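Lab notebook, design round three. We kept the backbone fixed and only want residue identities now. Task for the bench partner: fill in a sequence for the structure below.
Input structure tokens:
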């Protein structure tokens, strides 16, 4: 959820504080590799999981391996 306001040439988004989210959040990119990579950044901040991360192979085949190299806790989850 977020509060959104607009002017004639601007859209302003005021998101809720990250503290309102729990570690049980699962982000679903719906097979969109761009969303999946963006969700990983958000997921690292929230402690959330990203579903179907394999879709990133479309544009960045080494994405998961690079995450692991950088120290991110990437691991396969059971089906949700």
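Proposed sequence:
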């Amino acid at each position: 959820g977020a509060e959104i306001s607009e002017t004639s040439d601007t859209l302003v988004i005021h998101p809720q504080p990250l503290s309102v989210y729990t570690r049980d959040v699962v982000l679903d990119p719906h097979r969109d590799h761009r969303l999946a990579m963006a969700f990983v950044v958000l997921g690292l901040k929230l402690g959330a999981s990203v579903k179907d991360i394999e879709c990133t192979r479309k544009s960045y085949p080494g994405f998961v391996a690079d995450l692991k190299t950088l120290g991110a806790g990437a691991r396969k989850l059971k089906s949700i």
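Keep this in mind before ordering anything: Residues 51 and 79 are 9 Å apart (CA to CA).
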